[in-house]
């Protein structure tokens, strides 16, 4: 892992695999550091011939952090940070994978920096704008679970913060069930790396809607991965994305919640993601554009 420095902004970046392989940029969801794209998941992708890049968005992990409730950036800053990372790493274009809010950022990139996006994969995300009709709201149980979260009086208290993260994630599990042991292990790593987790739980939600775009303008080959048991963005959100984005393909994965694909589903999601990216690489090579 290394820290990239920009104009008064630091972004932590991690890489897996051979840099001569096609690059895949993973963008996490709101409040989550790069740790939720686990090293094992990144390693599986790298073993398939991909150069994998993950990073801490602002207010997560070891990247620049603002005081809770007072983000020193906008949603547009979050949406353009990936371009800064690609520039710094010398990557002309990448296969962009976005989860939830990261999917909104990925959509923004695919419209406003289309030449930097080879393919797009949107996981448990929702249209970042456009005419998507009436989409179902989050499951009522989410608001009840949020109200029941334990109070954190001291964000430097490891036990309290890790318990809070675990309980916050529990509500987003799908019908496959909640793997508390795995979640707690990730949360423990995340806490140990983070400057102030209280900032990430607050600030992303204050800026997340600043960069709306029309998904119908996306031209990159797009794979939409969505489950039937996502409590935040029910399946019609993924179906709307697949309908709005020209020629998008919807991969429905039963049982996943609002989360990065858990290990039980890697056998389904990873082959689809690898085929989506590498088939585009083959197409570009055949056109002499790679």
UniProtKB/TrEMBL annotation:
GO molecular function, one term: triacylglycerol lipase activity
Domain AB hydrolase-1: 22-260
Keywords: Hydrolase
Cross-referenced Gene3D superfamilies: alpha/beta hydrolase (3.40.50.1820)
GO biological process, one term: glycerolipid catabolic process
Superkingdom to which the source organism belongs: Bacteria
InterPro entries per UniProt: AB_hydrolase (IPR050471), AB_hydrolase_1 (IPR000073), AB_hydrolase_fold (IPR029058)
Pfam families reported for this sequence: Abhydrolase_1
Name of the protein described by the UniProt record: Alpha/beta hydrolase
């Amino acid at each position: 892992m290394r820290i990239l420095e920009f104009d008064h902004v630091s972004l932590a970046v991690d890489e897996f695999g051979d840099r001569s392989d096609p690059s895949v940029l993973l963008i996490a969801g709101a409040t989550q550091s790069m740790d939720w794209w686990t090293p094992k998941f990144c390693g599986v992708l790298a073993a398939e011939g991909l150069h994998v890049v993950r990073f801490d968005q602002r207010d997560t992990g070891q990247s620049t952090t603002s005081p809770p409730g007072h983000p020193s950036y906008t949603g547009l800053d979050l949406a353009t940070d990936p371009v800064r990372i690609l520039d710094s790493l010398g990557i002309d274009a990448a296969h962009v994978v976005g989860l939830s809010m990261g999917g909104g950022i990925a959509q923004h990139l695919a419209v406003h920096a289309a030449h930097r996006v080879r393919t797009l994969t949107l996981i448990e995300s929702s249209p970042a704008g456009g005419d998507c009709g009436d989409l179902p709201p989050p499951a009522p149980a989410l608001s009840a679970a949020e109200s029941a979260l334990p109070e954190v009086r001291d964000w430097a208290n490891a036990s309290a913060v890790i318990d809070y993260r675990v309980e916050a994630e529990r509500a987003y599990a799908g019908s496959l069930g909640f793997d508390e042991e795995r979640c707690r292990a990730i949360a423990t790593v995340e806490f140990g790396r983070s400057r102030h987790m209280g900032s990430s739980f607050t600030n992303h939600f204050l800026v997340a809607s600043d960069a709306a775009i029309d998904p119908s303008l996306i031209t990159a080959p797009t794979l939409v991965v969505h489950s039937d048991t996502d409590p935040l963005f029910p399946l019609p959100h993924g179906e709307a994305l697949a309908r709005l984005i020209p020629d998008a393909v919807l991969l429905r994965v039963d049982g996943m919640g609002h989360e990065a694909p858990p290990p039980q589903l890697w056998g389904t999601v990873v082959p689809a993601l690898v085929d989506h990216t590498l088939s585009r690489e083959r197409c570009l090579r055949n056109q002499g554009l790679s």
